[in-house]
Amino acid sequence: MTNLIKNNKIYFFIFFFLTFFLFLYGKDIAGLLDAKWIIKYPKHLVFPLAKYLSGFVKWLMDDANFIIFSFRDFTRFIAWIIEIPYNLILALISKGFLSGQGQDAKEILAPLSWMSVIAIIMFMALYTKDKLLVFLVFFAFLYLAIFGQWKSSMVTLSSIVIAVPVGVVIGLFLGILSYKSEILEKIISPVLDLMQTIPVFAYLVPILVMFGFGPVAALIATIIYAMPPMVRTTLLALKNIDPQIKESGLMSGCTKRQLMWRVLIPTSKPTLMIGVNQVIMLSLNMVIIASMIGAGGLGYDVLASLRRLNIGAGIETGVAIVVLAIALDRLSQAFVNIKTERKKINISFLKRYSRIIFLFLFIIIIYFLSTYLPFLKSFPEHLVINTSAFWESLIKYININYFDTLESIKVTLLTYFMLPIKRFLLGVPWPWFVLIISLIGWHYGRLKLAMLCFLLSLFIVFTGLWEKAMVTIYLCGSSVIIASIIGIPLGIWAGISSKANRVLTVIIDTLQTLPSFVYLIPVVMLFRVGDFTAMLAVILYSLAPAVRYTAHGIKNINKEIVDAGLICGCSQRQILLKIKLPLAIPEILLGINQTIMLALSMLVITALVGTRELGQEVYIALTKADIGRGLVAGLCVAFISIIADRIIKSGSDRLKIKYGMK
Amino acid sequence: MSQSSHKENNTPVIKCESVYKIFGNNALNLLENSKGQVDAKKFQEAGCIVGVNNASFGVAKGEMMVVMGLSGSGKSTLLRCISRLTDATAGKIYIDGEDLLAMNSKQLIELRRNKMGMVFQSFALLPHKTVIENIAFPLQVKGTSTKESMSRALEMVELVGLKGRENYFPRELSGGQQQRVGIARSLAVEPDIWFLDEPFSALDPLIRKEMQDEFLRLQGVLKKTIMFVTHDFDEALRLADRIAIMKDGIIEQLDTPDNIVLNPATEYVKKFTEDVPREKVLKIESIMDPYDSNNSSSNEVSKDAIIETLAESILNSKKILTVIDKNDNNKKVGSLDPSKVIKVIFGR
Ligand SMILES: Nc1ncnc2c1ncn2[C@@H]1O[C@H](COP(=O)(O)OP(=O)(O)O)[C@@H](O)[C@H]1O
Ligand SMILES: [Mg+2]
Fold it and tell me: Are A374 and A492 within one domain?
């Protein structure tokens, strides 16, 4: 078998030809053999995993008892634990503390004034010693107030304020535990893999069923979704500590606990903060999406306007999300880079805490003044600027004046690029496809990878989701191809020109901080619903890693190799084409891998704009609260991304070994 | 000197008996089958790496033993066995007569909190703590009150010459200064035993020299029992009372610097000693003749002086000198012919 695949090119062509042949004549062959199952996996052979899963969860909810409490008690307990702090924060920054219910509720304590919230955020920015940041957060939050997004933003922010600490703490502890126990690490690692590849919607279904519709369920989904990177970062940070630091702690006479909390954790704090930043950004992303199960806030506004195709309001909220995302990202990034100051000794208590005392005084004064001056309490209505009309007319203008251009782009790409791919993928008989995937697995990773590819693709077949999976692959594939065509040249540009690099880095960083939902808004406004719209949103969302990894690969080539090329008399063009680009390929492959991962996660969200793939399946399951259906489709998406990930990574590794870079 | 205290001086503070450290899953089995005859190559084929191979020695109170060898020869592993940062695969280790390997983790922590200090090659300072907090750290984990540990740490800051920098963070210090903090931290609990694993290897040559001088000064005051690891033979010669030369986990020779230079035990050791200028290592003692009262002079030199330091004055005097023992009431113990000095310096 090894020899058989050695002669790569010939076999590649043979397999490609065979595949094409089967695409053209597969149906006829199946007809001749009277074996229709080759084309379409028979319905009655579908393994009803979805039904079993739903049944299991129903049993859990209705009958499961753990001696003294039932599963339902358990979920109620969790919900209760989360609900209390959430309501507290929500009351503090948005709703105020009320007594009584509904209409005749009386306000005991007003929520913090918008000015106080801005002051608190600015205080946090000031703590990082980054002056520019203070202005940035000031204008960002002022924007939210002036443009009428304050209330929704505060609801969203409340969720984040709760989800982030809980996610960070749970993640930290799981990370520490898996650092301490190798067995646990071996268990947790694949679970995290799966958690990070299962599409977001699939999380929502079981949580919706277990916790019901509402902000608490949304919060739980957010925490679960945002926590995995914290576990990983913690584990990585602890493992990467200089062993001598650990030994110095031991030799100082630390007990195990002292070693962990006084040596290891503080030493890895800079890395841990990167994890915190990720948790914050993922929380924001998820809080927006979780509006589908009742999170409220900005996400709900977007969802509502998308459903009503209310162009102006949608874009208006979208911009608010962007502003909030950028402010939160920059703020938490600044905390990553914070350097502890040399301690000033012998300064008085008042002086040391002057800022925070000032902040408290400010909040209290604003609070009392706001009883008399209502504009302090909430931003005055008549000053709110409404931009939705502006956006509406802008989109209208574009649609009227450029309709033909937009439409022709859409039609051209659909007929000459997307549809052929779709027809091809759906035309090839599934057994052949499974075989090809397994062979590719064999080629890059021998038996282990081949088995993985084989079993995971069979799972998709047996659960009867093959066609939908092919549509997913088609949409994902088309998006990734275009994203690479755009992203790789941009990355090369950034790799050779430091000016371009600076500009592109800012753009790419910003693109990556935006919640996935936001990308849907402009494309839907311009192209309405359908595959093409989905593809555009996916391209926008997944472009960043293709650029970033390419630039990184080009920049990090050993300078001496380039010098050697120059001495040999290469032109700049030859250096790029003959030296830099080939050596950057392993890195570029990893970039494409990341692009695929992002594309798959975004693709599921585009179910909202009417695609017909696995994401749609999950989305339908969500609307029908059908756990089994949602989980199975979600697992299929996860398996597709695991197959792609493992194959590309092995390919990249092999190249790196070949080039002696590893 | 009373009999008992003499005896106490003879019990080594650190004592190793046939210590083995072998990395790998099957290490213990392989070791038992080999009956003490460990062949690094054979073990490697079986998937095991030999770190320390049958080390037996003792370190006396106040003695400075330097472990020297090329990188990968097992020096750190030996040190880590004795500080029990890693568990020896076989053998016995005694600290002040107590069986180290039999201690439970509580006893071990007590031992480290009171008797041991260690300095690391990469300094291993805690990045989030200031100089003084780093130095006070071993005291704080022990439960010493903040006030007491701070004043003790301040003493240490002064001892290593970092006064005025106590509120700096490690990242604000040069390498040499960082290692001073490392040294101060290791001394904060006033340990009897001091481990130093290549403490100066990460420093520039000039700074290294300065730190070695400083270190000798400190040891002159503190008189700790020291195990000092280095890969630099010159450093070993400068500092050591005795040197253990290691290769592939085996201690090839363990002896005083001048004996190693004069009588290298193996070919391997010889390679190190060949290029060493003898006058830099040898003491007057090693080239003197027995004392002969007929052939003496009023010019006296100490028997423990390194030849190089006196070479110029000896050659200038051109006369026979009397060698005295400064530790024994300046007793006359030998006489020295200047021609011998010439021979050491030029005649090789
Ligand atoms: N934890 C370990 N696992 C496996 N091998 C080790 C480990 N630590 C050290 N070794 C091996 O033991 C040998 C001695 O290492 P070390 O004591 O660090 O050498 P030195 O300090 O003299 O440079 C080396 O071959 C090294 O690779
Ligand atoms: Mg070492």
Answer: no
Pick the CATH number of B4-10+61-85+101-115+191-276 from 3.40.50.300, 3.20.20.140, 3.30.70.660, 3.40.50.720: 3.40.50.300
Per-residue pLDDT tens digits for A8-34: 677 778 888 888 887 777 777 777 777
Helices (H), chain B: 3-10, 27-34, 40-45, 75-82, 105-114, 131-142, 146-159, 175-187, 205-222, 233-239, 257-262, 267-273, 307-317, 338-346
CA–CA dist A25, A2 (Å, integer):
30
What is the spatial order of strands in the sheet that B49-59 belongs to? B49-59, B14-23, B90-95, B98-99
B72 in contact with ligand 1, CB cutoff 6 A = yes
Domain B280-346 matching CATH 3.90.1280.20: the answer reads yes
Q: What is the mean pLDDT of residues A410-428?
A: 90
3-state DSSP assignment of residue B332 = strand
- Structurally, chain A folds into a number of domains equal to 2
| Whether the Cβ atoms of residue B108 and residue B114 lie closer than 8 Å to each other | no
pLDDT tens-place string over residues B221-279: 999 999 999 999 999 998 999 999 999 999 999 999 988 988 899 999 999 888 888 88
Q: Could you tell me if A612 and A642 lie in one domain?
A: yes
Each residue of A507-536: pLDDT tens digit? 988 888 888 888 988 888 888 888 999 999
Q: What ipTM score was computed for the predicted complex, to two decimals?
A: 0.87
End position of a domain, from candidates A362, A396, A430: A396
Taking alpha carbons only, the member of A185, A125, A175 closest to residue A278 is: A175
Q: Say if ligand 1 is within 6 A of residue B86 CB.
A: no
Q: Which residue of B has its CA nearest to A255?
A: B109
Ligand 1 atom closest to the CA of B24, numbered from 1: 4
Cα–Cα distance for residue pair A48/A51, rounded to 1 Å: 5
Asked if residue B84 has pLDDT above 80, the reply is yes
- CA A65 to centroid of chain Cα atoms: 35
What does the pLDDT look like over A421-433, one tens digit per residue?
Answer: 998 888 888 888 8
Stretch 238-277 of chain A: residues touching chain B, C-beta under 8 Å = 242, 244-245, 247-248, 250-255, 258, 262-263, 266-267, 269
A:B CB pairs within 8 Å: 70
Q: Return mean pLDDT, chain B.
A: 88
Full domain range(s) for residue A644: 402-417+466-658
The answer to whether residue A179 is domain-embedded is yes
